[in-house]
Request: fold
Amino acid sequence: MGDSPKANQSGLAKAVFLDRDGTLIKQVELMHEIKDLEILPGVPGAVTKLNSLGFLTIIVTNQPVVARGVATPADIDRVHAELIGRLQTDGAKIDSVYFCPHHPEATLEQYRLKCDCRKPEPGMILKGLKDFNVDPNQSFMIGDAIIDVVAGQKAGLKTILVKSGPGHAGLDKKYPDIHPDWEAADLGEAVEIISRQLRRYRSESRPPASAS
Reply:
């Protein structure tokens, strides 16, 4: 996983956990170099809107390129630093990144294990919930693969499956009984769904006006 941030001690926060490849950036096979980093259209604006809605934004991503020996954890950190920097230039803030370097069939022995952080397991999300003192009932997981939905549900989050990447294709057969709370074309549409849900929640929570 990535470095752990300090816990938020100011009370329960709400967060949106974001898959990386196919959700924030273009899916590139074995991507581990900055030259291949391409942010998907509309992503900076969508992340900025999440920031303005008061959500922490936390990336959770499987990175088997480390397990295969294609890249080192430092290589992945450099890609993430570049991604965060580019988004920040456009006014969008990412609060933290967690990545899983493991794979049960890893080329490198030190990463060859069945862990609790590789999605569809919820370990990265659970760590983010703890580190930032996040209320899962107010939080979301967005990704382009059904394993993102599974991980989000295991962590108690609402889930949105986006169609901006190839991750959702062909995986449904493995989890025939798993369905996201919502589906969206891309991150921008997913954020609009969250915005509507937030408005609905605030409307339902508002006390009725007293009779005059």
Observations:
- Helices lie at 43-52, 64-67, 73-89, 123-131, 146-154, 187-205.
- The two ends are 57 Å apart (CA to CA).
- The mean pLDDT is 91.
